[in-house]
């Protein structure tokens, strides 16, 4: 009887029969070989190349996320957290004005974040104090605010007289910044109808007292003027000096020193090139 179909070859001695898995692996190898011959990479090669790329991408994403979290943490720390808040307020340059009074006027919120402090506003509050001429406010990390002040220096005093509000200290800019009960020693008196930093006559008189030599200033007992250009003052020995404006201070001082060696009552150096003694 004749058999139809393909006749199976008997297995060779010592050789195991091929299974379906062996056949599949052989086909895969054959396909890979064909792809390699055509210049295409195998699936395994593509997978080996793709994995490092994915790892790098994930690494970049993690770095970006950590960077964002770091920025958010810094913003919170600097702007909202009390960790870098005000813990101390230092006052530098205060002598006659109490430091505690300056701190109270500055009104710096305790533990408020340093970056959120309005230093200009703090400076303006302190600058309104009568005895303060200039103010500088700065941050000293991590938690100290430093207020540096320059106090006003008295150049003269003004006595408001009977029925007035007392004796007032006046600085070189004509600013009245302090009231006393008694006349201070060692300062000239301003003989004016009124004293104000907005008054040109006041500023002219205090301006002259602020520029004349200290040796001459120590001899001045009173200073007055009717106009900004007619400043004159009285010395301790009763002599009157007509100074004029604050211009040519050095020249006028030298001329006056020579004139004071002469006899006379009134010494006019308002025009230093044509001085007079009468």
How would you characterize the overall build of this protein?
The chain is an alpha/beta fold. Among the domains are: 85-151, Ubiquitin-like (UB roll); 154-277, Rossmann fold (3-Layer(aba) Sandwich), CATH 3.40.50.10960. 36% of the residues lie in helices and 22% in strands. It contains seven helices and twelve strands. It has helices at 20-37, 43-79, 99-106, 119-127, 200-211, 214-217, 249-259, and strands at 88-92, 132-140, 144-151, 154-159, 167-171, 176-180, 189-190, 220-224, 231-235, 240-244, 266-268, 276-277. The strands form three sheets. It has a six-stranded mixed β-sheet with strand order 7-8-9-10-11-12. Strands 1-3-2 form a three-stranded mixed β-sheet, with helices on one face. The protein has a three-stranded antiparallel β-sheet with strand order 4-5-6, covered by helices on one side. Helix 3 packs across helix 4. The N and C termini lie far apart (168 Å).
CATH class of the domain at 154-277: Alpha Beta
Q: How do the helices and strands follow one another from N- to C-terminus?
A: HHEHHEEEEEEHHEEEHEE
- Using only C-alpha atoms, the radius of gyration works out to 47 Å
Percent range of helical residues: 25-40%
Question: Class by helix and strand content?
Answer: alpha/beta
Estimated share of beta-strand residues? 15-25%
Q: Which spans of ≥5 residues are poorly predicted at pLDDT below 50?
A: 1-6
Number of strands: 12
Count of DSSP helices?
Answer: 7
What is the end-to-end distance? 168 Å
Average pLDDT, rounded to a whole number, is: 84
Main pleated sheet: 6 strands, mixed
* Spatial ordering of strands, largest sheet: 7-8-9-10-11-12
CATH architecture of the domain at 154-277: 3-Layer(aba) Sandwich
Shape: elongated
CATH fold category name of the domain at 154-277? Rossmann fold
Biased composition (Basic and acidic residues): 1-25
Region (Disordered): 1-54
Domain POTRA: 84-152
Main location: membrane
